[in-house]
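forwarding from the other thread:

> can someone predict this with pyridoxal-5'-phosphate?

sure thing
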Amino acid sequence: MSTVESVCNLMNNYARWSIRLVKGKGNAVWDEAGKQYLDFTSGIAVASLGHVPDAVANALHEQVDTLWHCSNLFEIPIQEKLAAKLADLSGLDGVFFCNSGAEANEAAIKIARRYAQKVKQTDRYEVITFDQSFHGRTLATLTATGQAKVKEGFAPLPEGFITVPYNDSEALKAAITDKTCAIMLELVQGEGGVHPAEQAWVNEIRELCDAHDLVLIVDEVQTGIGRTGTWFAFQQYGIKPDVVSLAKALGSGFPVGAIMAVGKVAEAFAPGSHGSTFGGNPLAMAAGLATVTEIEEQGYLQKVNQLHDVLVGELKQLQSLYADKVIDVRGLGLLLGLELSVPVADILTYMREKGVILLQAGPQVIRMLPSFVTTEAEIKQVIALLKEAIEQTA
Ligand SMILES: *Cc1c(COP(=O)(O)O)cnc(C)c1O
């Protein structure tokens, strides 16, 4: 009982793997003993350019010697620069910076309500969300989340959230009332099992939002910044949301969150209506700007699409090889799910022991989020090990 390792003062809110990571570079991470792992999750959709990418590390080093913090009472040039870049890439107008995905979604909910109440002068407040969605861990965002397990023990929850089945038009239409102010969704449900939204349903949501003057919020915390092969998943669906939330990959691992909104909604955030001490911090902005610039200059979107084709091709072969065990391959870009007919926990443990880190999205789905700098050789390595794992465990 006297070793440091045996005493842990961290709260027990994560079911952690017993791997102690201390270093990362590219797709590799190393534990304390020097064992190397291939991170096929990009730190859960965060390290899209690999761990410690040079371009972002250099920008951070430079910013560390320049200015760390600056209150949002000042005009912050580097914040304006990243906002202009995001507006340009998305076609949306106003940007607000915060520090995480939950905070971004919290801001999205607030701006939708404030638009309804202050700009449109209505008493609307209800937000419609979807089963199996994931929007974060703050009180409002866990209430918005369509999974009972994240809500246990946190009552009373904030009012004004209604959750209906995903990809179901009738349920959605029935849920819209004269109190509805927004519809909020992920275009690919990440945590909830890697489920892409159906195109026709998404078109219908846009039409419903137009017809009822509802704010369409797309949660791109996981799908944004190139993960699905376009800058934002909404661009593949050919719709324009009113509000988009971002976080995970935006800072390559440095905490940055953001919402982007179309002009009329963006105006709802007047001085004093919302804020954050650290949001838009110069260090975070340096990381964000370097990340976005690097994706643009290195042509990574094209790379994501190429890697998608290779990886999906391999996974489909796996499916035909083990047709009784592998029942679906789905997802967009490099946000992919492999659904099995059996629980996947043992497969993931086997893979970790062999040095490959993968994720689950529900009990029977393996979630893969490889970085944009993944090589075909690494894909082949993962597939070969997956074959072994399926044969040995499933
Ligand atoms: C991860 C995630 C969040 C929460 O982000 P945090 O930074 O953990 O607060 C919200 N929405 C989606 C879709 C996510 O994947």
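The pocket of pyridoxal-5'-phosphate is lined by residues 100-102, 105, 134-136, 186, 190-191, 219, 221-222, 247-248 (CB under 6 Å). thats all i got for now
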